């Protein structure tokens, strides 16, 4: 329903909801508790298919329950792991804002697309350091998240221009850096973010304007190492055209993908809490920060396929 949106908020809310759910019910056995928590985790994970922050947050919490040996231990692990995830997530936003603000060229006019908590925090931090002079914010049809971003930047005192999405290339000549968030990052360093991001990245590439992505490490997608693709959520056509108008165009199918993929080649830097990296280093984040052990997986694969 988009009542909770933004990949980071979605992840923190999932962790908090797992904690509330697990703490609100009475269980008699570890088995029952685990089963119910796995069920709840699956319900949460299915709510939005694209933001990898969601399954990564859920996995972070559930893996500590799975590692517990008694019901009491598992219940305590649930609360601890959820609180731990939320605290790390908040801390990551602060660290990224600090690192990212240093990466923004001095006296910059920046452009951003959609409403990313971490991109907004980075822009405001850079403004406080005197590195940002002005901002351009896109509208972000069809949900208009650009209004939230424009208000946040305006509240921080940043002179802000509000433009329709299709004006991004027109204004690119006035821009010193583009800064966005991410819903997912693949092992190859491609970034999945709000629909329209890749067009802006293309325009920035053409104009030699640096394109900076700000994202917590838990938005990196381990499954892409195994050939999985990030599903792109396609939302209701009514978000784009209301039913009455759609009814006048019986042969028209309204399409509404919520995200697109920006290739690594158009991205200059991905700023994470582990530092600013070139997109080609995404695999290192998956291995070292998400603890995705390819060797372990490979071993299990070989055992399963012995025949
Ligand atoms: P933070 C949002 O998706 C936008 O695509 C935004 O760039 C991204 O999540 C990351 O946001 P949606 O939930 O985690 O609005 O940086 O569809 O807040």
What would your notes on this structure say?
Helix 2 runs parallel beside helix 4 (71-103) and helix 3 (53-66) packs antiparallel against helix 4 (71-103). The protein folds into 2 domains: 7-92, Four Helix Bundle (Hemerythrin (Met), subunit A), CATH 1.20.120; 94-234 and 248-292, Rossmann fold. It is globular. The model has no long low-confidence stretch (mean pLDDT 95). The strands form 2 sheets. A 7-stranded mixed β-sheet has the order 3-2-1-4-7-9-10, with helices on both faces. Strands 5-6-8 form a 3-stranded antiparallel β-sheet, with helices on one face. The chain is of the alpha/beta class. Strand 9 and strand 10 form a beta hairpin. The longest helix has 33 residues, at 71-103. It is built from 11 helices and 10 strands. It has helices at 7-24, 30-45, 53-66, 71-103, 117-128, 146-155, 168-171, 197-206, 243-247, 282-288, 294-304; strands spanning 108-112, 132-138, 160-163, 177-180, 184-185, 191-194, 211-214, 259-262, 269-272, 275-277. Residues 5-9, 114, 116-118, 145, 180-183, 193-194, 258 line the site of 1,5-di-O-phosphono-alpha-D-ribofuranose (RI2).
Secondary structure elements and pairings:
Elements: H1 7-24, H2 30-45, H3 53-66, H4 71-103, E1 108-112, H5 117-128, E2 132-138, H6 146-155, E3 160-163, H7 168-171, E4 177-180, E5 184-185, E6 191-194, H8 197-206, E7 211-214, H9 243-247, E8 259-262, E9 269-272, E10 275-277, H10 282-288, H11 294-304
Parallel strand pairs: 1-2, 1-4, 2-3, 4-7, 7-9
Antiparallel strand pairs: 5-6, 6-8, 9-10
Helix pairs in contact: 1-2, 1-3, 1-4, 2-3, 2-4, 3-4, 4-5
Bound molecules: 1,5-di-O-phosphono-alpha-D-ribofuranose.
């Amino acid at each position: 329903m988009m009542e909770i949106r933004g990949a980071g908020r979605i992840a923190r809310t999932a962790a908090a909801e797992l904690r509330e759910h697990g703490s609100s019910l009475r269980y008699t056995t570890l088995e029952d508790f685990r089963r119910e928590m796995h069920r709840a985790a699956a319900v949460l994970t299915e709510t939005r298919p694209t933001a990898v922050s969601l399954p990564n947050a859920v996995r972070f919490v559930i893996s500590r329950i799975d590692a517990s040996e008694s019901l009491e231990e598992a219940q305590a692990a649930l609360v601890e792991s959820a609180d731990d995830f939320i605290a790390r997530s908040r801390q990551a936003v602060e660290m990224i804002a600090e690192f990212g603000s240093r990466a923004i060229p001095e006296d910059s006019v920046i452009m951003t697309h959609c409403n990313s908590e971490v991109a907004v925090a980075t822009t405001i931090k850079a403004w406080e350091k005197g590195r940002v002079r002005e901002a351009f914010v896109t509208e972000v049809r069809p949900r208009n998240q650009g209004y939230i971003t424009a208000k946040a930047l305006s509240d921080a005192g940043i002179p802000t221009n509000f433009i329709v999405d299709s004006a991004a290339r027109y204004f690119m000549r006035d821009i010193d850096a583009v800064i966005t968030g991410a819903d997912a990052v693949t092992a190859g360093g491609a970034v999945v973010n709000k629909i329209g991001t890749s067009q802006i990245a293309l325009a920035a590439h053409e104009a030699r304007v640096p394109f900076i992505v700000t994202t917590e490490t838990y938005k990196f997608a381990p499954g892409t190492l195994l050939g999985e693709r990030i599903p792109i959520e396609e939302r209701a056509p009514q978000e784009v055209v209301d039913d009455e108008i759609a009814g006048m165009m019986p042969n028209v199918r309204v399409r509404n993908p919520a995200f697109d993929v920006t290739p690594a080649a158009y991205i200059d830097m991905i700023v994470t809490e582990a530092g600013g990296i070139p997109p080609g280093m995404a695999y290192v984040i998956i291995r070292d920060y998400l603890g995705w052990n390819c060797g372990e997986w490979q071993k299990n694969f070989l055992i399963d396929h012995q025949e």
